[in-house]
Amino acid sequence: MQTLSLQIFGVSTGFVTAGAIIALSYSTVPVFLSHPNEVSLRHLRALFSSGSHIFPQLATAASTAFSVLAYTAPPASPLRYQYIVAAAGTIGIAPFTILVMKPTNMTLKEIGEQGDEGIKKSGGEQRVQELLRRFGRLNAIRGGILAMGAGVGLYAALSQRN
């Protein structure tokens, strides 16, 4: 029963979190692009703030569930390795965010804090639009990484049932 609960929790938390992250890219970023940059950047800062309090914790929770499942799986079994991959995939958004997304995120944040002056210094309206598009693409990739981890976890859970 404990295994089933961890499987359901890890898979559902992973997929729901991935879906929320990907949805932000495909629903929120286009709205940002349709508004003046100064307004978009202000709202993006709020999005960064709220997202940083939700998504890392959910990814960690899913990864922890998969880690416990890996620990309790038979040693050197394919199941153990599948859960290890699922755990790494779900927490994989953290290094991706820090190593790949942070430069874009910080640039957008800094431009937003400076308002019109920041937009001018950054290279203008077009440059901000490019950065917003880049954020959207990178954010969708981040969600995809999380979804792949959850998918491997689902595969492991289903293969255990046979």
Give the helix level as a range of percent: over 70%
Poorly predicted runs:
none
Q: Which sequence of SSEs, written as H and E, runs from N to C?
A: HHHHHH
pLDDT averaged residue by residue: 91
Question: What is the total tally of β strands?
Answer: 0
Report the structural category.
mainly alpha
Write the layout of secondary structure elements.
Elements: H1 2-33, H2 37-52, H3 55-72, H4 78-91, H5 93-122, H6 125-161
Helix pairs in contact: 1-3, 1-6, 2-5, 3-4, 4-6, 5-6
Give a quick summary of the entry.
Helices cover 91% and strands 0% of the residues.
Q: What this model shows, in words?
A:
By secondary structure, the chain is mostly helical. 91% of the residues lie in helices and 0% in strands. The protein has helices spanning 2-33, 37-52, 55-72, 78-91, 93-122, 125-161. The protein starts with a helix and ends with a helix. The mean pLDDT is 91.
Provide tags for this entry:
mainly alpha, elongated
